[in-house]
Design brief:
heterodimer; A: mainly alpha; 15 helices; B: alpha+beta; 4-stranded antiparallel beta sheet; elongated
């Protein structure tokens, strides 16, 4: 391939100052912007979680009135899902996929920049709804009608911001697919591709398949609200349960959109610190693909209690449990990769191991929820909250932190403060369990989710959970301090960074030059 | 391979992926009729079929079998007083009966109501045949008007043997009142 970007002057870096960030089409710059944006949203969403846990510290209403409490839970979820976890994975994709497959840049660099700014604008719009009469959306991130139709002036803004973030995700996904399909270095066959890139290729297809369905569902809400259609309005012949079906047809693949890139990250890290290639590479690829396929046929397990024929309940129970098979293959292969490996426990490995244990725990509570008669008891309780936070926080978020600790020396050219990173790890790992484990007990004891006040028998575990939340939240300040320190300086990182680097990204110097692989590397 | 080639392949793949996204968007809307089809095939019934007149032709009463039909009512959005006249009745499958609901307009103005029926258990829905029902048409009420509304029904003699009790439930909505900022 000839030099596609030959109009750039390689000797000079990017333009200085703010202009660089507004006009850049460089995959590394855009990746950085996504990651910084995601970290900011993680703090905003975390701040909302802080307020939720402060209110739930004791029974009774202390600091938030119920309407604001509902806005907090809704915005916490929307921001963490669409503003923190997803953009973080997109940022990593931008940084690492071209470097892992030996491409000079993403295939569609200008669309890349557009999708980033669209996302930033979408969240500005979403956050501005706090200033509207009636406040921010308060229906939960699931936006079920008829409740969501009671949203005040914020309603059209919230829907439009969802449209924008959906469009942004779809463009990001298209970019990833085109890059991986067309831009791989000669000799980089699909089955030589690193697992992080593989996980993103499959995630991107999921995004294209389901984000537009979500866009359709919220468009129907919009027309029900403004144009008197009756998609979900029972008085006009519609059915609110239909919304739940359409939403979860999107929503279940969506949760895999948040976890599959995490699987990819862990599949990069565990071999490095076991000093062994991944065990069962093809099985890992096949497992991701199977999970992606199954994600389309399990959606109704989120809504067992709406009233469903027995055959439907059985089908969705069994298809849900089937997911444990490819997921089990992945857990088994990660464990087997470590078997007789030469293990060392640098921060990325610590986070990856915590992921392995705690994600599995979240998976098990998911299996419990898949059992219909049990789900009738657990539905809409804190048990569900505990389940999905286990798979998302020590699951996805820990994997994302592992990725930052794994690749940051490559990004900045500096080694970070290992001691500080280990403090961050241990504090996070302990407090995340103090935070979420008691929520299992609360849920089994019958505490409903999304309530600002509760009966006094739930007081003790709520207090423990809130203490865990404050500890976990404050520990993240260490993470930010560590990142700032690492960007500003530190011991210079070598090209390989780690003892047993594997993959093309470790063949370029640290920090990675502004342009890499303009001449395609040779793959052996 | 030249840069121009790559650019061309990128554009064509991008176009195909955009089409795929557009297809997904259309599929989201296609789920609406598909949902009705699904409810129809599984016998749960849809708003269209549950509010369509059935026929009692060919039904012969089964004197030896009785089934309890319970009546419930709800007013999800307010504005009405709405309740069954009798909470339940014992019926013979195959025989035509009439039951009554009483509705009163509390909206403070003339308005139109629409009842939306549902049958429980779900698999009994296809055996509950309404020959006439106030739920087939919107019901106009003058201000403060109160009146009785009738439903004539027959429980199909083919009703599975293990069902001896079914519930007819109506939710009563105001159709005259626009939603949203209107």
């Amino acid at each position: 391939m000839s030099h596609a970007a030959s109009h750039d002057d390689h000797a000079n870096g990017p333009p200085k100052g703010i202009v660089r960030w507004l006009t850049t089409t460089n995959h590394k710059d855009i990746g950085t912007m996504y990651l910084v944006f995601s970290l900011m949203m993680f703090l905003v969403g975390g701040g909302f979680a802080f307020m939720i846990r402060a209110e739930l510290f004791q029974p009774g209403l202390q600091i938030l009135n119920p309407a604001v409490f509902n806005q907090m839970t809704t915005m916490h979820a929307l921001i963490m899902v669409f503003g923190a976890v997803m953009p973080a994975t997109v940022g990593l994709a931008n940084w690492m996929i071209p470097m892992q497959i030996g491409a000079a840049d993403m295939a569609l660099p200008r669309m890349n920049l557009f999708s980033f700014w669209l996302l930033a604008f979408a969240f500005l719009l979403l956050l501005s709804t706090f200033l509207m009469p009636g406040g921010a959306p308060a229906s939960g991130w699931t936006l079920y009608p008829p409740l969501v139709l009671q949203t005040g002036e914020a309603f059209p803004l919230a829907i439009f911001s969802i449209h924008l973030m959906g469009a942004s995700s779809i463009m990001g996904a298209i970019n990833v697919i085109v890059t991986i399909v067309n831009m791989r270095a000669p000799g980089m066959t699909l089955l030589k591709m690193p697992l992080f890139s593989w996980s993103w290729l499959i995630t991107a297809y999921l995004l294209i398949a389901v984000m537009p369905v979500f866009a359709g569902a919220v468009t129907m809400l919009l027309t029900d609200y403004f144009f008197h259609t009756s998609f979900f309005n029972a008085a006009g012949g519609g059915d609110p349960v239909l919304f739940q079906h359409v939403f979860w047809f999107f929503g279940h693949p969506e949760v895999y959109i948040m976890i599959l890139p995490a699987f990819g990250i862990v599949s990069e890290i565990i071999p490095t610190f076991s000093r062994k290639p991944i065990f069962g590479y093809e099985a890992m690829v096949f497992a991701i693909a199977s999970i992606a396929f199954l994600s389309f046929i399990v959606w109704a397990h989120h809504m067992f209690t709406v009233g469903m024929p027995l055959a439907g309940q059985l089908f969705f129970t069994l298809s849900t449990m089937l997911i444990a098979v490819p997921t089990g293959v992945k857990i088994f292969n990660w464990t087997t990769t470590m078997w007789r490996g030469s293990l060392s426990f640098e921060p990325p490995m610590l986070f990856a191991l915590a992921f392995l244990f705690l994600f599995t725990l979240g998976g098990f509570s998911g299996l419990m929820l898949a059992i219909v008669p049990a789900d009738y008891q657990y539905h809409d309780t804190y048990f569900v909250v505990a389940h999905f936070h286990y798979v998302l926080v020590p699951g996805s978020v820990f994997a994302l932190m592992a990725a930052v600790y794994y690749w940051m020396p490559k990004w900045t050219g500096h080694m970070y403060d290992m001691t500080l990173a280990k403090w961050h790890f241990w504090l996070s790992a302990i407090f995340v369990n103090v935070l979420f484990f008691p929520q299992h007990f609360l849920g089994l004891a019958g505490m409903p989710r999304r309530i600002p006040d509760y009966a006094s028998q739930f007081a003790d575990w709520n207090m423990v959970s809130s203490i865990g939340a404050f500890g976990f939240g404050l520990s993240q300040l260490l993470f930010i301090w560590l990142i700032v320190k690492c960007v500003r300086g530190g011991a210079p990182a070598t090209a390989g960074v780690w003892d047993w680097p594997h993959g093309l990204e470790w063949t370029v110097p640290s920090p990675a030059p502004y342009h890499t692989f303009e001449k395609a590397p040779e793959i052996h | 391979m030249s840069a121009a080639d790559t650019g061309k392949r990128n554009r064509s793949l991008t176009a195909r992926l955009v089409l795929m996204a557009a297809g997904s968007f259309a599929f989201g809307f296609a789920l609406v009729p598909l949902y009705d089809v699904f409810c129809e095939v599984t016998g749960i019934g849809t708003d269209k079929t549950l509010t369509r007149a059935g026929s009692a032709d060919g039904q012969v009463p089964v004197p030896g079998r009785t089934v309890v039909v319970e009546f419930t009512a709800s007013v999800p959005a307010g504005g009405w007083q709405f309740e069954p006249v009798a909470a339940s009745m014992e019926v013979h499958p195959g025989k035509l009966y009439e039951a009554h609901y009483r509705a009163r307009n509390l909206a403070g103005r003339a308005t139109t109501g629409q009842a939306v029926p549902s049958i429980s258990p779900m698999r009994a829905a296809r055996y509950f045949v309404k020959t006439e029902c106030f739920c087939f048409t919107p019901q106009h009420f003058a201000q403060d008007e109160e009146r009785e509304l009738a439903v004539r029904f027959v429980v199909d003699r083919e009703l599975p043997k293990n069902i001896d009790r079914l519930t007819l439930s109506y939710a009563f909505y105001d159709v005259g009142q626009a939603r949203g900022p209107g």
